[in-house]
Write a structure and sequence with these properties.
The structure holds 2 protein chains of 2 kinds. In chain A, 35% of the residues lie in helices and 21% in strands. Chain A is an alpha/beta fold. The termini of chain A are far apart. In chain B, strands 1-4 form a two-stranded antiparallel ribbon. Chain B has a two-stranded antiparallel sheet with strand order 2-3. In chain B, strands 5-6 form a two-stranded antiparallel ribbon. Helices cover 45% and strands 10% of the residues of chain B. Chain B has 2 domains: 301 residues, no CATH class; 175 residues, Alpha-Beta Plaits (2-Layer Sandwich), CATH 3.30.70.20. Chain B contains 23 helices and 10 strands. Classes of the chains: A alpha/beta, B mainly alpha. At the A-B interface, helix 5, strand 4, helix 8, helix 9 and strand 11 of A face helix 22 of B.
């Protein structure tokens, strides 16, 4: 191309965008729409954790869309408690294991899994069944028990939370998945995808001291968004959360909700949860607060939601 | 008979190394069953009134003399290692360097008598301080273990910098100046004494050594010099780390001999014998010497006893109330405070084995008698784990009674106290609930408060005092929720289970 031609075409494109600012964007996205729009959210019900995950990811374009060959992947489940899987205090180990396997198959060079646990981290890793599931599938557990593993990150969009120390594995990775479990929660009312972010942070007492819900919403403005929020609702904890006392607190819903949108996935999960234990989503204040920070939307009508029963 | 020394060395290492590593092991890699080895220690066996083990130890001592001191006691073996090491720093000529000294009878019997008398009067202060096993345990857990952890942390930091997480950083949260100071003091004392004078500590300070010395005077087997072949070359005397062989008079002071058999190996003439004491033909009048020391023992103990009879020993144990801001919290299985204070030797094993490191050696929380006995000290994310009974299962004495996991989950070591006026929900009117979140029994649970908020409420009779709530409460420096220790540990009520949800959900709900 001659230099003159280049300037010419550049000027044309420039003029076009001035007069019709959405033209380029529209032409770009319309190409996608014609193929078959990827849903904004996929919900699956009635299968085993691994089968549901594979099914949902198929709708979302396959794992290869998120994990490229040679990528360093981090998975952040909820492993807060020294509890066995049947007590639904931690993310389902089969789900975590299945995700590790999928990432491996997509050619990930390294798959790290961690949580900043509430109970003794070694016991939580072991007794949750996650440690075994991860190492069997070819991933690695990373400790999150010490401040030295965390690095300070700015939250320019945060209202109360302006800075926080975030686990370094997350800062160094190419892609990460947020894999919470749906639970009742004594303090935050419910814990889903955004509350799960408290496990990537070192100093949690700051949250409790500075309006818990606002800080949770602030943490969802973290610049490095998870590729997907994969909400485990295979077993949910309907009462006495987040630890639970016995299996009477557990309800088996055999469900899975996936979306890159924090607010949407939490909203959907709350609606599912309320069928078991009616809870006003307004009381889970961080969901509305996050929407205000434009982290995502509570209006599921606007989204392309795919519901699958297995 | 030179094989005797080799056997002694092998047996002593079989006891020493596992015990040493067990105390060092900060990652919990070694099997907890290793604590069984510790039951063979004299003071733990005596305090537990474990008749079988006391019997075994007694028979061993009456048969072979003080072999407890030279094989089973980790502090004794530790001193042997130091003594042996020190020889590398000397010129070769001086390698066998000991010479006979007179026993420090007044000192050793006074210490023994004082220890016993204080104990009878209800203060285990000297038992805790002087039990050789516990002294060793403290030295390792307060001095060696932190060094090992430091080493681990340096290496793990380097590795994690390179993205390798195979090692992990271990917190050093157990620092208590009193415990560290006492451990250091004894390390220096024992170290210096053994470096220059072999088993001097065992034969002057250690009450167990002194007691066993009384037994070894009548033990069936003993070291003796065969006068007929002895050339009085003095090699035996120079090799005797107890400094109890007088080669001039060809006598061995049985009360200080720890049956290490070094002299047998040293003697070139084969004149050192380890043999049957009660041979018929010899009715030697050697016993006068021993009688003397026995008399000293009785005299000194009488003197100490009478002085103490006038002194109100109870003041020693009762000072704690004024020093404390709250009742100390004993580890689960302690039962009641009198039992616990009287039976715990402060060996620090439970402190080292506690996976949460919530157990710390006490300063003056239990009073002077209870220095270095463990108590629970909560800090951020440091509390007593619900599904754990390690401390009570490794305790070598009966200070902590073994608890099954189900029992432990119901032992109430303290009771939660909630100060509503300090709570974040009350002061800031924002949600928090960290305490209830961490409460394993939901003794702390959330109830509706104003504006859709919830605030903690406490059900005392299902609280077990684990301190999870206190450890996580964000209010600083004085927590809005805390645990008050129980003087008598009781059984808490079982928490009620939630109502089961039996309907089938077949809809997404959105």
């Amino acid at each position: 191309m001659k230099r003159r031609d280049f300037f010419k075409s550049a000027a044309v494109v420039g003029l076009a965008t001035i007069f019709k600012p959405n033209a380029l964007a529209a032409s770009a996205s319309s190409a996608n729409l014609t193929v078959q729009a990827t849903p904004d959210m996929v919900a699956v019900m009635g299968g085993e954790p691994e089968a549901m995950l594979i099914r949902a990811l198929k709708e979302l374009g396959g794992i290869g869309k998120y994990v490229k060959k040679g990528n360093k992947v981090v998975i952040k489940p909820n492993i807060g408690w020294d509890r066995k899987p049947e007590l639904a205090a931690n993310t389902n180990p089969e789900l975590v294991g299945a995700l590790v396997k999928l990432c491996k198959s997509a050619g990930a060079s390294e798959i790290l899994v961690f949580d900043h646990t509430c109970h003794d981290w070694k016991k939580s890793y072991t007794n949750s069944g996650i440690e075994k599931a991860v190492s069997d599938a070819g991933g690695k557990m990373v400790p999150g028990n010490d401040e030295s593993y965390y690095r300070e990150v700015d939250f320019p969009r945060g209202v109360n939370l302006k800075k926080a120390k975030i686990h370094k594995s997350l800062l160094e990775c190419d892609v990460w998945f947020n894999v919470p479990i749906l639970k009742n929660h004594g303090g935050a009312k419910n814990t889903i995808s955004m509350k799960n972010l408290m496990g990537i942070v070192w100093d949690r007492s700051f949250f409790h001291n500075n309006d818990l819900h606002q800080c949770i919403a602030d943490s969802a403005t973290f610049h490095k968004k998870p590729a997907l929020n994969i909400v485990d609702a295979y077993r949910i904890l309907k009462s006495n959360g987040p630890q639970g006392k016995s299996e009477s607190d557990v309800v088996k819903l055999k469900s899975l909700i996936i979306s890159p949108d924090f607010v949407a996935v939490d909203t959907a999960a709350m609606k599912m949860f309320s069928q078991v234990q009616p809870t006003d989503i307004k009381d889970v204040r961080h969901i509305a607060l996050a929407e205000k920070l434009r982290v995502g939307t509570q209006n599921l009508e606007k989204l392309n939601v795919k519901r699958i029963k297995m | 008979m030179k094989f005797l020394k080799n056997i002694r060395v092998i047996i002593s290492l079989l006891f020493f190394l596992p015990i040493f590593l067990f105390f060092i092991d900060f990652a919990g890699k070694l099997p907890l069953q290793l604590h069984e080895l510790l039951k063979f220690q004299w003071i733990p066996a005596l305090l537990s009134l474990n008749l079988v083990l006391i019997g075994i130890l007694l028979v061993l001592s009456l048969l072979f003399g003080r072999i407890y001191c030279s094989t089973i006691c980790p502090l004794g073996v530790f001193q042997d290692i130091l003594t042996w090491k020190s020889s590398f720093f000397r010129k070769k000529k001086k390698k066998f360097r000991f010479e006979y000294t007179k026993p420090q009878n007044i000192l050793r019997y006074s210490i023994l008598a004082l220890t016993i008398v204080l104990f009878i009067f209800g203060s285990s202060f000297l038992v805790i301080l002087l039990d050789p096993y516990s002294t060793f345990g403290r030295m390792v857990s307060q001095l060696f273990r932190p060094l090992a952890i430091m080493g681990n942390n340096v290496i793990s930091a380097i590795l994690s910098g390179m993205g390798n997480y195979s090692l992990y950083k271990v917190d050093q949260v157990g620092f208590v100046p009193v415990a560290f100071g006492i451990s250091l003091l004894f390390f220096v004392l024992v170290g210096v004494m053994s470096w220059f004078r072999g088993r001097l500590y065992c034969n002057t300070v250690c009450p167990v050594g002194t007691t066993l010395g009384l037994l070894s005077k009548i033990s069936i087997f003993r070291i003796s010099i065969k006068e007929s072949s002895c050339t009085q070359c003095g090699l035996c005397e120079k090799s005797c780390k107890s400094q109890c062989i007088d080669s001039e008079t060809m006598k061995v002071d049985d009360s200080r001999c720890v049956s290490c058999f070094n002299c047998i190996s040293a003697c070139k003439k084969g004149s050192m014998k380890y043999e049957f004491r009660y041979k018929k033909q010899i009715a030697e009048p050697v016993q006068t010497h021993a009688d003397n020391s026995r008399r000293t023992f009785l005299l000194t103990s009488g003197a100490v006893l009478s002085t103490l009879a006038f002194a109100n020993v109870k003041t020693l144990t009762r000072k704690k109330d004024t020093i404390l801001t709250r009742q100390p919290i004993m580890p689960p299985g302690a039962g009641n405070i009198e039992h616990f204070n009287a039976h715990c030797t402060g060996c620090q094993l439970c402190v080292g084995k506690c996976p949460m490191q919530v157990l710390k050696p006490a300063a003056l929380q239990y009073g002077i008698s209870g220095i270095m006995q463990p108590h629970l000290a909560f800090s951020t994310q440091v509390f007593c784990t619900y599904d754990c009974n390690i401390c009570s299962s490794v305790c070598p004495t009966v200070a902590l009674k073994p608890l099954s996991m189900e029992e432990k989950k119901l032992v109430q070591i303290g009771i939660v106290k909630f100060r509503k006026d300090m709570c974040v929900v009350f002061t800031d009117e924002t949600d928090c609930g960290a305490c209830s979140e961490h409460c394993p029994t939901q003794a702390v649970h959330m109830i509706p408060y104003k504006k859709g908020l919830t605030i903690p409420e406490v059900t005392e009779n299902i609280c077990i005092g684990c301190g999870a709530c206190e450890s996580i409460c964000p209010v600083k420096p004085y927590k809005a929720i805390y645990v008050e220790g129980n003087k008598i540990q009781i059984t808490a009520k079982k928490p009620k289970e939630a109502k089961k949800f039996n309907k089938v959900i077949d809809d997404f709900g959105f």
